[in-house]
Amino acid sequence: MKKTILTLQQRKENQQKITMLTAYDYTTAKLMDESGVDCLLVGDSLGMVMLGYESTVFVTMEDMIHHSKAVAKAAKTAFVITDLPFMSYHTSVYDAVYNAGRLIKEGQAQAVKLEGGQAFCEHIKMIAQASIPVVAHIGLMPQSVLALGGYKVQGKDYQNAKNIVLDALAVEQAGAAAILLECVPAKLAKFITELVNIPTIGIGAGAGCDGQVLVYQDMLSMYDGVSSKFVKSFAPVGEQMKKAFGDYCQEVKQQQYPASIHEFAMDDEIMQNLKS
Ligand code: KIV
Ligand code: NA
Question: What family does the database annotate (predicted)?
Answer without folding.
Answer: Belongs to the PanB family.
